[in-house]
Design goal:
five-stranded antiparallel sheet; six-stranded mixed sheet; 3 domains; 4 helices; alpha+beta; single chain; 21% helix; 258 residues
Amino acid sequence: MLRFTQKEAEAHYWTYANIPMFKLKNVIVRRKNGKYLVEVSRLFETIPQLIKHYRQTPGKLNKISFLLKYPIKQQSWEYTHQDVQQGKLLGEGAFGEVRAGTLKLKSGRVVEVAIKVVSVALQFFTNMGEYSKNSFIILLFLQTKGCSDIGKAKIKEMMKEARLMRNFRHRNVVRIYGVAVDEQPLYIILELVTGGALNTFLKENAGKVAVKEKLDMCLGAALGVEYLHMNQCMHRDLAARNCLITHDKVVCACTIRL
């Protein structure tokens, strides 16, 4: 597994995972004078050349020998950043801006998406088939360069939640399609219904929503939460701002805060 982690004026940094006896270890791949290295004495023109070498010849780092034996293949729910194209600004929310864009699916089909650029904490960092006409995909952007341990912990928690909830399938739960973590910022890809956030809908239609419609909305949110509970998942922040609504007024609970 190889992922881009940091970029500076004179050096680019990647890490690849070395997993002896199923214990994960990160090894830094540095770029110096246009070449790549793990060991100071061995430079390579390209990343593929470096990987090929260490699949055949043991290397040594911090007095520990390593050899790349088994690649970690990309899962069906993992995407690359090259699969995503950003477009125009759609709006701004409490956690950042939303942009239009496209996502290239595994089948090669390109679908419209919405891209959520998230600021979890400004002092720390700035910031996953078929789809119906009323649905898009949202990509959650997290930029981690320069963030504190608290910011990193938040990112780790969110990515863990995304991996856990990617298998959830319910009419009243916003689906998570996958993640893109090969480089920064990190993406979490979700279904997004075009009606927008429920709290915004209620404010814009104050006095126009019938009591029966409100009860149906409450029922939809309750059914979504019931499904989450049946799958050993607690929402922790169920509110109108964290629910989405379709144009036909179906409410969906979003497990990732918008």
